[in-house]
Amino acid sequence: xxxxxxxxxxxxxxxxxxxxxxxxxxxxxxxxxxxxxxxxxxxxxxxxxxxxxxxxxxxxxxxxxxxxxxxxxxxxxxxxxxxxxxxxxxxxxxxxxxxxxxxxxxxxxxxxxxxxxxxxxxxxxxxxxxxxxxxxxxxxxxxxxxxxxxxxxxxxxxxxxxxxxxxxxxxxxxxxxxxxxxxxxxxxxxxxxxxxxxxxxxxxxxxxxxxxxxxxxxxxxxxxxxxxxxxxxxxxxxxxxxxxxxxxxxxxxxxxxxxxxxxxxxxxxxxxxxxxxxxxxxxxxxxxxxxxxxxxxxxxxxxxxxxxxxxxxxxxxxxxxxxxxxxxxxxxxxxxxxxxxxxxxxxxxxxxxxxxxxxxxxxxxxxxxxxxxxxxxxxxxxxxxxxxxxxxxxxxxxxxxxxxxxxxxxxxxxxxxxxxxxxxxxx
Length: 427
Description:
It contains 15 helices and 17 strands. The relative contact order is 0.11. It has two domains: 8-283, Mur-like, catalytic domain (UDP-N-acetylmuramoyl-L-alanine:D-glutamate ligase); 291-426, Alpha-Beta Complex (Protein-Tyrosine Phosphatase, Chain A). The chain is of the alpha/beta class. The protein has helices at residues 8-16, 28-37, 54-67, 96-110, 117-130, 168-171, 175-183, 201-210, 252-265, 274-283, 307-318, 338-345, 365-378, 391-401, 414-426, and strands at residues 45-49, 72-75, 87-89, 92-93, 136-140, 157-160, 191-194, 213-216, 222-225, 230-233, 238-242, 291-293, 298-302, 326-330, 351-354, 385-387, 407-411. The strands form three sheets. An eight-stranded mixed sheet has the order 4-3-2-5-1-6-7-8, with helices on both faces. The chain has a six-stranded mixed sheet with strand order 12-13-17-14-15-16, with helices on both faces. Strands 9-10-11 form a three-stranded antiparallel sheet, with helices on one face.
């Protein structure tokens, strides 16, 4: 008889070692185990994918629905500090005991079926939600869509927030390839929201062939705003006098309008009042998405790790006002478009504090130094930079170098933001 671990961290270590590849995109294995677990959901399910903006969109859906009085399950990935962040019910992270119970069930059901870390933990979260008597469930896709473990669930409404180049080794080298993969979270006859203002033809083609009810930004829903408030317009629903979301960033109204389109599409099953929308937007929280921490110097945490997201980061930095100097704590995975990310923010950075990322996909700080210097040469500019042995050391180095009136941007990866948070907590 197998002896299962007693602690959550021991379980996670065990799960990491189950499969020979960390990413192995196919639904065959995970669907086999899901069938054995007999996963069923008696509430409306929102499935949210996209290159950027999906985490913010999930957070807004969750916040608005909870403000409307619904009991909501929320699944997101990756986590920043604790695995428990990935599964929330009613805004509260699942505790260790609840997660371990699900891990034991998945382990028993899988028999000799090999599962990746993401597949195993996704099944565990789904089983947790299936037993939680929810009014609504919000699921964030991990990678792509068509072959992501979350796609075993038939959503009542699916949202694709944006399509940009990322994970090209798995999803393909163009927006058309990536749009094809992400569009497969759509379902026949079900609302299919697309928040990308310029969706690739492949996404529209897949939605049409699936027979999905496609809602396009600019055609089926839109937004308009001034400095004080904004308004949403959908197919049949108008919401005016809305407060700006508590999440910072120029792209958040696009994310919010996609979330409101999804709520409009399911309004018969999940009616939401204007007051609930207002309260949900005002109170929504998500760590690491252009999160400006209190105190001086100003510290901005942003998990932006592809050129599209980095361009939004640059725009958001511009909107913050004047700072004498901007220091960047930068660490990124080596399979990302490092040159593309650096190019989008290079002109906003005065000094780079470069840190390694760990694991199979980790990138050495010296590699980052070479890429920053190459970007400087291309611009006939100088690059002030320093490398460190860890993200925590890089963050402390930036704090030591910055004046109280300066700004520190921590970006490039969830790992980078998490390392800076740990450094702050230990100081």
